[in-house]
Amino acid sequence: QNRPIPVACDDYHGLTEPSQLTPQAIKMLNRMRDDVVNTLPDVPYYAVDEDEYHITLAVLQEILPFDRSPVHLTEDELNELKEKFREVVRDHPSFRIRLEGLRVGADGGVIAVWKDSGEINKIRRDFYKRAGLVVDENKLADKKGRVTIHTTLVRILGNVDPDSFAGLKLIVEKYKDISL
After folding, report:
1. Angle made by CA atoms 65, 66, 69, in degrees to the nearest 5
2. Of all helices (H) and strands (E), which one includes residue 150?
3. Nearest in space to 57 (alpha carbons), one of 114, 142, 135
4. What is the pTM of this model?
5. What are phi and psi of 45, to 5 degrees?
6. How far apart are CA 33 and CA 148, in angstroms?
7. Which tens digit of pLDDT belongs to each residue from 20-42?
8. HSE-up of 18 (CA within 13 Å, CB side)?
9. Do 137 and 122 touch, CB atoms closer than 8 A?
10. Tens digit of pLDDT for each residue in 94-149?
């Protein structure tokens, strides 16, 4: 998916864009999600429906100081951050990305990972600047120094037995280095 994607801000604690994905990308995300779900027969989970797919650009919990996390913000403060993001969006109305693979996080999130063309980092930095946030991006980066741009497909809600874990590893390997 290497085409401009419209950017917006939603009412959740993350700053995201609503799904404007191609049918091909949605089909691949559904296949990845369904493969993951099929490896979890006895594990409680929440599978994200395709009409809820979004690409997470910045998660407030990760960029705000601990005492200013979204749960500590007033509605006015949260709305002010959203407005700053909307301002950035007006100046950066689209970006290009490519589906890159699948990961399972320690928090139970199973995510599709997108490769950034560099535009998303510009959007993020502009948002941080306008919102007056000092962000150590090294704390947000993976081992390769990249901030993960992702779509959550499944949230695992319980303990994963060894067989299901082995199955998850196989699914992640199956989708390693895909390019869409």
Report:
1. 85
2. strand 149-156
3. 114
4. 0.76
5. -155, 165
6. 18
7. 677 888 899 999 999 999 999 88
8. 5
9. no
10. 777 788 899 998 788 899 988 877 777 788 888 888 888 777 666 666 666 566 78
Contact 17, 1 (CB under 8 A): no
Q: What whole-number distance in Å separates Cα of residue 86 and Cα of residue 77? A: 14
Identify the sign of the CA torsion 163, 151, 118, 77: negative
- Which residue(s) pair with 101 in the sheet? 113
Q: Enumerate residues 6+ apart whose C-beta is below 8 A from 159.
A: 43
In b/e form, how buried is each residue of 79-105, taking b as 16+ CB within 10 angstroms?
eebbebbeebbeebeebbbebbbbbbe
Q: Give the side-chain half-sphere CA count within 13 A for 119.
A: 18
d(CA 95, CA 81): 21
Q: Between 148 and 162, where is the model more confident?
A: 162
